[in-house]
Write a structure and sequence with these properties.
Elements (H helix, E strand, L loop, with lengths): L4 H12 L3 H11 L5 E3 L4 E3 L1 H14 L5 E3 L4 E3 L2 E3 L2 E3 L10 E8 L2 E9 L14
């Protein structure tokens, strides 16, 4: 694996952790100090804000979280973490592309580009 596809493979696991303290410990070991993520619904700057976004998603989608959707791929500090949020045995609740910019072999920025949101799976008020 290159320096960017390894963290792309670890990235989904941190969001799947159900225990808040365990998830935060994983995030602290995974993300860079200046981490951030953004998609059309949410933007988060820093590990605290990222942890808040993940905690909200865990409440909204309490199933197993993200599952592999192919092989994570990366080069030159940019990666595609191949994953999809989905309940166990069910269809993906969001499809699209995520692009991860890494630094020191850790995620620094993740930019999400979802395909049209599957509105029947989104809880009322999501994205508000």
């Amino acid at each position: 694996m290159s320096g960017s596809d390894e963290p792309a493979g670890r990235y989904p696991a941190s969001g799947n952790e159900r225990d808040p303290a365990g998830r935060r410990a994983m995030a602290d070991g995974l993300w860079t100090d200046d981490a951030g993520c953004a998609d059309p619904i949410v933007a988060a700057e820093g590990r605290d804000a990222i942890d808040d976004v993940v905690a909200t998603a865990r409440r909204q989608f309490p199933g197993p979280g993200c599952r592999p959707a192919g092989k994570a791929d990366g080069h030159h500090d940019v990666a595609h973490p191949a994953r999809e949020p989905a309940p166990a045995g069910g269809p993906a609740v969001i499809a699209g592309l995520a692009v991860m910019v890494t630094g020191r072999a850790r995620p620094r920025r993740v930019h999400g580009f979802p395909d049209p949101v599957l509105t029947d799976t989104i809880a009322p008020g999501a994205g508000s």
